[in-house]
Design brief:
This protein is an alpha+beta fold and 249 residues long. Helices cover 24% and strands 23% of the residues. The chain has five helices and eleven strands; from the N terminus they run H-H-H-H-E-E-E-E-E-H-E-E-E-E-E-E. The structure holds 3-methylcatechol (MBD) and fe (iii) ion (FE). The site of 3-methylcatechol has 12 residues, from helix 3.
């Protein structure tokens, strides 16, 4: 028997029971809920539903325990097998977005830099689609992985992402609309960093002053993840520092 699993599931059920009782939820409403979830599953939106509503709570529950810098939700669109990139992410032909350079340093809690860490970078097209997920955009677009150099740094060119609406034609969008909210996320770049000896680190960067930065449909924003954007010649520049949490055992 798995005691941890048992406790968490029992507690979740008890918490749900409290909400159902407080709201006098009827059997009919319950049945509607079951049908709704079946529809979400049939339309392959289950990861989207759960990541939009719940993942930020997991980050909140977990993130204060380590020595890492702020993490963020991963969302449903991470892909493991993406090209290794040198200096730029592949962008779609005709992408007229503003050129963006992402510069980062990966560190240990004491400030020492971490070389040879693997950094995954991914973000949406200017039309708000993710390569390898949404139709018409191959998986090698706007995605890649690279290694930090001897100085713990990485740098990659791409185009500046814009605010993005999560899929709004399916059951998840319908629910959010019925709840009186919009389906937008602020412009963001996703990162995941892996290095032996450290816990996997997953975050996002948002842009200071960006639309929806204070009203993300996925509730995924904390101040530490909002970065200023610098202008360098014709390029926008985003500078990020990530601190990894050493594994203790
Ligand atoms: C996204 O692009 C995203 O980052 C999250 C968290 C949820 C849905 C779509
Ligand atoms: Fe995203």
């Amino acid at each position: 028997m798995n005691e941890r699993l048992t406790k968490i599931v029992r507690d979740l059920i008890a918490a749900a029971g409290k909400v159902l009782a407080e709201n006098n939820v009827t059997r009919e409403e319950y049945r509607q809920g079951v049908h709704y979830l079946a529809k979400v599953q049939a339309d392959k939106e289950l990861p989207l539903l759960i990541d939009v509503f719940l993942e930020h709570l997991v980050i909140k529950a977990e993130d204060h325990r380590g020595h890492n810098s702020a993490q963020a939700i991963e969302g449903p669109y991470f892909i493991e097998e993406v090209p290794w990139v040198e200096s730029a992410l592949k962008t779609a032909p005709g992408d007229e977005g503003e050129p963006l350079i992402v510069r980062g340093t990966v560190k240990e809690p004491d400030g020492a830099t971490v070389k040879d860490a693997t950094v995954f970078v991914w973000h949406s097209t200017p039309d708000g689609a993710y390569g390898g997920i949404h139709e018409g955009i191959p998986s090698e677009f706007y995605r890649g992985r690279l290694k930090t150099g001897a100085d713990g740094k990485f740098e990659i060119a791409t185009t500046l992402p814009v605010p993005y609406t999560i899929p709004d034609k399916g059951p998840v969008g319908a629910l959010i609309t019925m709840m009186g909210h919009h389906t937008w996320r602020p412009a963001h770049v996703h990162f995941k960093v892996r290095k032996d000896g450290f816990r996997e680190f997953t975050t996002q960067a948002y842009f200071e002053g960006g639309k929806y930065v204070d009203d993300d449909v996925a509730g995924g924003i904390v101040d530490a993840l909002i970065f200023p954007i610098q202008q360098e010649g014709k390029n926008k520049v985003l500078n990020v520092d990530f601190v990894l949490d050493p594994k203790t055992s």
